[in-house]
Amino acid sequence: MHFIPPFLDSEFSVKTSRSSGKGGQHVNKTSTKVLLGFSVHDSLLLTADEKTILLEKLAHKLTNNGLLQVVAQAERSQLGNREIAVKKMYALLNKCFVVRKKRKATKPTKTATEKRLTAKKRRGLHKKERTLFLKNE
Q1: Whole-number Å distance between alpha carbons of 63 and 85
Q2: What is the extent of the structural domain holding 133?
Q3: Fewer CB within 10 Å, N- or C-terminus of the chain?
């Protein structure tokens, strides 16, 4: 397993804007919404292998400019939203490096197979009896 340590903060670009949601008049006056951007291509701190993994796994989340963006607007303060956005970004980046376990193919047990076949036979007989009953009427 490979995780990105929190040293990429210097490569994040931060934009703020007016947030929607709770806050009343405060929301209309202050820029609390945080849009955090990270350019995988231009990163100086990531290795080439790390960049290729990120570009493959996050291809659907990148903008046309190759920018990975995360938005946070849950808190009423810009600082709180910035912290949430940074945590979201690191969670997203680290998730790409988690290696999934290979699925082991398993066979159904003998009793499970027998149960399935007897249930199928019982259901088939039930349907057959139904058609015979309808023909006799």
Answers
A1: 17
A2: 106-137
A3: C
Centre a 10 Å sphere on the Cβ of residue 34 and count the other Cβ atoms it contains. Answer: 24
Cα-atom radius of gyration of the chain, to the nearest Å? 28
Q: Which two tokens stand for residue 86?
A: 């940074």
Q: In terms of domains, do 31 and 61 share one?
A: yes
Residue 4, pLDDT > 70, answer: no
pLDDT confidence of residue 1: 46
Q: Are residues 13 and 78 in the same domain?
A: yes
Q: How many domains does the chain have?
A: 2
Examine residue 100 and state whether it is found in any structural domain, yes or no: no
Kindly report, residue by residue over 77-103, the tens digit of the pLDDT.
889 999 999 999 999 988 888 888 999
Question: Could you tell me which residues come within 8 angstroms of residue 37 by beta carbon, excluding any fewer than 6 positions away?
Answer: 12, 13, 14, 15, 67, 68, 69
